[in-house]
Every structure is written in C-alpha cells, then in structure tokens.
Amino acid sequence: MVRTKNGGRGRLFSRCWLAALAAGITVSAVTGCSRTSGEARAGEGEQYTLPEIMVIAATERNRYEKVYTDQIWTVEVDDAGTTMEDMLLSQIRTFLEDMETMRLLAETRGIELTASEVSQVYSLAQEYYGTLSPGDLAFTGVSEEDIQILYERYCLANRLVNELTKDVNLEISDNEAKVIAVQQITVSSPETAQTVYGEVSAEGADFAAVAKEYSENEEIDRLLGRGEESESYEEAAFSLEDGQISQPVESDGKYYIIKCINSYDEEATAARKSQLSLARKNQAFRSIYDQFEEENPVEISDELWSQVSFDGGEDCTTTDFFDLYHEYFPE
Fold first, then answer.
1. Distance CA 331, CA 111 (A)
2. Are 141 and 27 in contact (CB under 8 A)?
3. What is the pTM of this model?
4. The dihedral sign for the CA sequence 96, 107, 147, 300
5. How many whole angstroms separate alpha carbon 331 and alpha carbon 203?
6. DSSP 8-state assignment for residue 271
7. pLDDT tens-digit map of 239-253
8. Strands of 176-331, DSSP E
9. Of 157, 161, 162, 155, whose CA–CA distance to 118 is shortest?
10. Phi then psi for 21, rounded to 5 degrees?
C-alpha cells in the first residue's frame, strides 16, 4: 500500500487546517463476523479499534461509490499500478495517524475540549449512531462509545488548530484575493497573434468565435487570481476593464490575447479569500505540527491495518459522519 505521510491527503484534509479533516466499515466482510462494542484495542499501544477505523473507511467508501459506483476501486491512479482503493485507504490511514498525533500535541499543550463541546459531542454521537442501519452496524461493528471517541478526537483536532493559530492574522485584502473572469486566445507566433488581435479588435467582432478558430489551447474562458500566471500575463489581464482586449502578450514562449469579461468576480474573489486565509492558517499550524510529528511518530500497526478493507458490506450505506459533525460545529 502506498503511504503518503506528509502529502497526498486529498479530500481527507480539505475542510479546514491541515489541508482539514474529513473521511466507515468492513468487519464482517474481513473476518466473517462483526466486532462487539466492547472489543479491546488490537495490539498493545493501538490508538484505534478496528470498528473505529471502519467507520471512517465506510464513510469514504460509500461517499465515493455514491458518485462513481464500486467500479472506481480498481482504477489505477499512477504508473506504479496503485489502485484508487489503495490510495484512499492510505489517505485514511494517514488521516487517523495525524489525528492521533494532534491528540498528543493537544495533551502536551494542555488543550482540552470545553464542557460545552463535550456535551455537543455526546449529542452528536447519539444522533449519528441512531442513523446507522443494521447493515452499517454489521459492517463496522461500531458502538455508540466508539462514535463518541472518534468525534471527541476530531473535535479536539479542530480545537487544537484554532488555539495554535488564534493570534495569526488571517485577513486577506480584496486586492490580494481579487479574481477576474477573462477569455484568452493562445498562439505560438507573434505574427499570428497580431493577425488575431486585428480580427478581435474589429467592430462587432465575436471574441469567443475567433478564439475557437485560432486558439491552440481549448481553455478559452477562465477565472484568474494573482500569482497563477506569469508577471507579463497578469499585468496585462489585471489592467483591463470589462470588455477591453489586450495587445498580444508573450509568456513562456506563447502569445496571448486577453479579453476581460468581469474585472471583479465577487463570488470567486470571496471564495479565494477564504482559501488564502485557510492556507495562511494551515501554514502557521504546520510550522508547529510538523516538528512535533517528526519527534513523536505515530503509526497504526500493519497487523491491525491489514484487516481494513472496502470489500463486502453491501448493506452499509452511511456517508454523513463528517457532514453531521459540521452541522454541530460549523466552521
């Protein structure tokens, strides 16, 4: 199985902090019987029980299958033959190990859940457990106590990030976050660029139609934020007002004619501002977390992990472990 301890977290870390936590349940399929709620943790020093792991695994498996069907798991995602199942399971393993590392870091910093958070987690665990079908329970073997433990860890991880970054300036200016909407024509020679510019500059010209005829890049309509293109391209694009067209711009061996469609896309700018703020928060957190992780390695044993699988559990359909959490603890 491919491991990506310090990268490749994908969607599992996309909602907040470490790129943000997100992520089920295959016990009967692996062992032929479900786990009991009082099962001891497998192996000395294990941080999770198999049912706890399976809740996260099932949640992600079912979420992907809902969109792509179960045919997705055999799709190879790299030249080494890594399957989508291998990759997602590796990300889930990393996610759980990181969450345990964060628990340890919170412990060293004296960071704990508040009484209010503990109460909310208790209610959340009750509600989520109540949504589980007999098929969900058989596949995961999970108990309400397991669910509560997982939610407490997840909540603590988020509290840790917020506490360690509470003094970081997360304000992003409109200018820094600004996103514009443009159309572009891409050609390889300055002569062609001048010809194209003459056509699109003519009165009544249809820029998009000319782009379809000449552009070597199928991407004609695009949203553009600062730092995403070369200095020459951005200088030209961000100087345009709505409806204006740039002179040909040379960038990385190509020539571009750019038309401004919207010099300030309010919705896209707001979204980018949020992304940039998150990236700044993530960077501040990682400056503390990465060193601690290196000095305090956490790894779920291969013996325990070998029991985790997406196979079976056709009656297991749970998908909202994380969605329900964010209803109780909105970001």
1. 19
2. yes
3. 0.74
4. positive
5. 49
6. H
7. 999 999 999 999 999
8. 179-187, 221-225, 249-251, 254-262
9. 155
10. -60, 140
